């Protein structure tokens, strides 16, 4: 099995397990896990092509938000049911550890730089999900108004 497939499965299982811990309904567990797998695969592809973690995280978070909004409509459930477990693989835990490690061992400049990157990555997750969810809802509302007006004619 290829490395990407293994990573996809691990991200899927991590998101799936997180969804189980949050007591999400059984019929939504598969989709919550799939959201995490998609997020991690997108991140890996982008990090290898661009080398920029914040950019890769931001685009991956947009995918999480779009997938969550789409599945929320299909499953008739709130989008956070999918977005919260879906973003687990993107959380910069090792970056936060590295920040503290560098600061504790006196490498202040490196620690501050890593801390800024960690904060930027966390912000990219929040902004990416917010942007995609808001954009999805805006487009959905515009399309609703267009089709509602066509139906009146």
Automatic annotation (TrEMBL):
GO terms for cellular component: plasma membrane. One of its GO terms (biological process) is succinate transport. Its main location: membrane. Residues 8-133 form the Threonine/Serine exporter ThrE domain. This is Threonine/Serine exporter ThrE domain-containing protein. The keyword Membrane applies. The chain crosses the membrane at residues 45-67, 79-104, 124-144. It is found in: Cell membrane.
